[in-house]
């Protein structure tokens, strides 16, 4: 009798474990967030002025899995072949000379959750680079004549229209509320289906990401480095 019970309990706990392990993300998309370094603590060199990679993850409308595989820690040797490109595209704003710790955090937090789809560390980082090469936030701004300024401000819908027009799909826009309540454009996010076609980011994701830039906000586009 005791043996019987033991087997049942063991079976129950095993099946629970494997259920959690293979819990499938329903309606997944890829989500790429690019970021402009607007912190005063940026350590990036003066020549560097672009929206760089911040986050590349798989998620759905309501749920973003994180830290999916503690048994697969980041290994710089696995991305050696694209290290130069990563240094350019995915810098650590607070530690320009040594971004590897940041890549490791990103891999462990978001990358491991793409394993069912992208399967290797190299594939994850390569796909992030490719995705970023296909979005052009700076060009979108220039085309809409939205230029960096310390004095002219823009509205959320001006930015939104500029990115939608250039990219052809709805993006997300995040701002930062800085010193003296100054609102600054900070992040642009892009959504892709699982075949890497650009798709509209849903209103749910757009609203979730829309930090600090309300419809009435006066938003600055900063350009420290060209001053
Ligand atoms: C997102 O995926 C989770 C499972 O991981 C599921 O419970 C949830 O319903 C999904 N949300 C949408 C909007 O599909
Ligand atoms: C714009 O603001 C930055 C940061 O405060 C400052 O360094 C720069 O001199 C300003 N530029 C102009 C033209 O006022």
TrEMBL record:
Q: Which SUPFAM superfamilies match?
A: Ribonuclease Rh-like
The stretch of residues making up the signal peptide is: 1-20
Q: Which InterPro entries match?
A: RNase_T2-like, RNase_T2-like_sf
Whether Ligase counts among this entry's keywords is no
Keyword annotations for this protein? Signal
Q: Which PANTHER family match?
A: RIBONUCLEASE T2
Family designation: Belongs to the RNase T2 family.
Q: What is this protein called?
A: Ribonuclease t2
| Organism taxonomic ancestry | Eukaryota, Metamonada, Anaeramoebidae, Anaeramoeba
């Amino acid at each position: 009798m005791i043996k019987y019970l033991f087997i049942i309990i063991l079976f129950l706990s095993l099946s629970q474990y494997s259920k959690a392990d293979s819990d499938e993300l329903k309606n997944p998309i890829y989500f790429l967030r690019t970021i402009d370094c607007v912190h005063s603590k940026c350590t990036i060199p003066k020549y560097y002025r672009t929206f760089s990679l911040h986050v590349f993850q798989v998620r759905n409308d309501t749920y973003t899995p994180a830290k999916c595989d503690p048994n697969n820690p980041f290994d710089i040797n696995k991305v050696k072949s694209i290290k130069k490109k990563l240094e350019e595209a995915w810098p650590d704003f607070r530690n320009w000379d040594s971004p590897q710790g940041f890549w490791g955090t990103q891999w462990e937090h978001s990358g491991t959750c793409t394993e069912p789809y992208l399967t290797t560390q190299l594939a994850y980082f390569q796909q992030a680079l490719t995705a970023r090469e296909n979005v052009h936030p700076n060009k979108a701004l220039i085309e809409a004549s939205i230029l960096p300024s310390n004095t002219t401000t823009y509205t959320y819908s001006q930015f939104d229209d500029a990115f939608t027009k250039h990219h052809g799909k709805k993006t997300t826009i995040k701002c930062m509320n800085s010193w003296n309540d100054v609102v600054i454009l900070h992040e642009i996010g892009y959504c892709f289906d699982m075949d890497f076609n650009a798709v509209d980011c849903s209103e749910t994701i757009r609203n979730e990401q829309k930090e600090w830039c309300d419809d009435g906000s006066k938003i600055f586009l900063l350009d420290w480095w060209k001053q």
